[in-house]
Design brief:
alpha+beta; 4-stranded mixed sheet; 6 helices
Length: about 150
Amino acid sequence: MKFLIFLMFLPCFCLSQIKTGTFSDLEIGQKENHKPVIIHIYTSWCSVCKIEFFELNKDKELTQFINNNFYFINFEAEKTKEKIRFQGKEFEYLPNGNSGIHELVLALSKNKKQPVYPLWIVLDENQNLVEYHEGKYHPDQLKADLKEICSNQN
């Protein structure tokens, strides 16, 4: 029993946690405090996405830097079904048989037919695209890129 309790709390001891928000949180937050935005697009079936997110949360310096300097949206491309308002437009889920994709993913992706996961979209505080990254993002590279983005904003 003690081992089971230990396993339940293990992630709390080993990982920092990136604070995630929603697109409606972003809309409200940007009115009060303009910050750059990170949109991390993933799917539940993507093993690379899971490994990457675990590695990112293991890097306490990176998670703290993201939490202090960015709005972070963790966006599940194929299971997010609610209507999303973003940059003055509304986007909906597009069902396709037993699955589907959110049309916001298609709008953000350069590959409109088959987006690559994970997909990283970084917007400056005015919501202009400053970084686009398809595939696994190594924590050290992400950290360097985000620090550069912040230094260019000041």
